[in-house]
Amino acid sequence: MTSTSIRAEAAFASEGASSARTAFPSVAALPAELRAEVAAAIDEQPAEARAVVRRLLGATVAALTSGDQRAWTSAREVEETARVGSALAAAGALPDPLLVVIGRLTGWAVERTAGARPGTSGVLKDVVRVGHAVTRGLAGGFHRHARSRTASSLAGEQLASALLSGRQVPGAAACYQVLAVLGGADRLPPLGGVAVIRGSVGYLLVPEAGPGRGPELAARLQEALPTAVWVAPHWARATEVPTAAAAAGDVVALAVAADAPAGVHRLEDFAVEYAAMRHASVETELRRLIEPVFAGPGLAETLRAFLRADGNRTRAAEALIVHRSTLDYRLKRIAQLTGHDPVKPAGMQVLAVAMTTSRAAAVRARFAAVAGTR
């Protein structure tokens, strides 16, 4: 065995001979020269980063040799890879040597796959995707951590509050997924971001999460919390975080006001109500319109039940546990007070928007207080 091979074997088995195959399951498949390069890359890392780097390279080789691109398509694996980049940044090491080695491993895997299974272009694409995914995750995690270290002394809730208030924070990420959350939790799982919460209302800001990752992050947040929550994501550049937060908070407020079930909600689900609420004069007029309904005994409850029943009077009466004639009387009274007949489609739509935007005001104010805009 050559000296380079001995050094490579030692690097792979530094946690004990029995763990060599677990830490690097496909080490035997690598050519001696490439094994030596990988060993050298591990040796060059600071002591505190070697273990995570060894595990990353082992998983990379395993995925490359199997052509299993799914290893880096799940959010969990992407985040794990990013954590290695973050660990390098925290240890003061550069990712460049590892990126070169990963490129060499990807090239070797492509040649190996092409030789073993000629004509299988789909498998070759999968191998390349694995290499690209590892490279992106590693570099992204490194640069994200490096930026966060230069973001003055702000971190956690202080950083979230500063961004939500519109302050320019040196070193902040270029963009964020802003998630507005309403539920029973008194703290939010970070998911790689920073959060601020007051009571059951809060915001989670996840840096460098692209526009398309909002629903995925919202779903993960919902799964991580012990109670049902209403969540709305909105992507924004760092300078636009306050606007995104207001939009996401409004969507959650409208979802709750419309008696929508807990879950992930989007602006397009409440486009009409959102547009009305964003115009002060329209919102004021709708509030004036619906005020008599809130003042009349049982009228607001009746209208809500009627709207939840999609205009079906029998179902609404059953939900309210009242006689059908009682329901009809109340609906006629609503029409008299507002000038809009809830039994007719046009009147029902106007009253639904007025009811929802008016009820959303209280929750909207709570989000504004968290963001520091009220």
* Poorly predicted spans: 1-25
Average pLDDT metric: 81
- What percent of residues adopt helix (DSSP H or I)? 55-70%
Class based on secondary structure composition and strand pairing? alpha+beta
- Give the C-alpha Rg: 28 Å
Number of helices: 16
Distance between the termini: 71 Å
The gross shape turns out to be elongated
Main β sheet profile: 5 strands, mixed
Strands of the largest sheet, in order across it?
Answer: 2-3-1-4-5
Strand content: 5-15%
Let me know the number of strands: 5
H/E element order = HHHHHHHHEEEHEHEHHHHHH
Structural summary, described in words:
By secondary structure, this protein is of the alpha+beta class. It has helices at 3-12, 20-23, 32-43, 47-66, 75-90, 96-116, 121-149, 156-164, 214-224, 241-257, 271-277, 280-295, 299-308, 313-320, 324-338, 345-371; strands at 175-183, 194-198, 201-207, 229-237, 263-264. The chain has a 5-stranded mixed beta sheet, with helices on both faces. Strand 4 (229-237), helix 10 and strand 5 (263-264) form a beta-alpha-beta unit. Helix 3 (32-43) runs antiparallel to helix 6 (96-116), helix 10 packs across helix 16 and helix 11 packs across helix 16. The longest helix is centred in the middle third of the chain and has 29 residues, at 121-149. Mean pLDDT is 81; it is low at 1-25.
